[in-house]
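Need tokens for this chain, all 268 residues.
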Amino acid sequence: MRLSHPSAPFQGIPADDVFFAANEQFVQMGVAYIILHMQEEIYPERPLQLFIDIQAQPTARNLLLGALLGRAEQLRAQFPQLKGRIYTEIAPSQFDLVSFYNQSGFSSSDAREEHLFTLPVGSAQAPMGCEFASVPLMSVQDQHAFLSRLNRYRMSPITHDFLTLQIQQPCFMALGYYRAGHPIAEIMVTGASPNTAALVMLYVQKDMRRRGIGKSLLCAASELLRQRGVNAALTQAFSANQAQAGLLRSLGASRRRVINILPHIDLG
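Here are the structure tokens for all 268 residues:
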């Protein structure tokens, strides 16, 4: 089995972070890549996140994983003071890959899950000195600015195409608390179901957390949704994210399904 790098960036990923595996007859057996990104919001205790992906025949997986782990050590050496993890994301139905990563020393204690909850009823008081308002989305510039704020708090970015499509949905709302025009917290809700919406994103600025602001903003959005006949919402969360798990518990949410498993190895 032979390893090689592409001669140019692969799908926008630097060539040094991509590996091809081929057999002795130079028949390609698979491709793998690694992407480094910082995520201080979702995983503040492990901000260095190294995502890997392997698309290969079973006979090439070990070789490609070894190459990725070696490259991960090189990337990690650039940030020796930071804790992090190497992780991937796979469907729970991919039993062979679940087994492969578990046997390779990865933990499967984190997962992307879907939860259902009844819209909360409660006080929706804006923080002192803040106003409650719709997010301005009239211009493309406004839309990109909104997405930029949301995506700082996400593992996978919301695209402009997705936002454009959701704006047309009957349950779409983009709301926030603002102080002197600057966002303190924002929420995005969408969906076309007659009685169930989708909570796509809710964030609170780091220095304003643990004050009930997120729950208050959700209550404000819920009141508007109930006026449209909506009484429940679906959302996605990571099981290892304590803040997300705590909010879902406070809402009495129930897990509907595991969307993807995130096998990972902690670093530091």
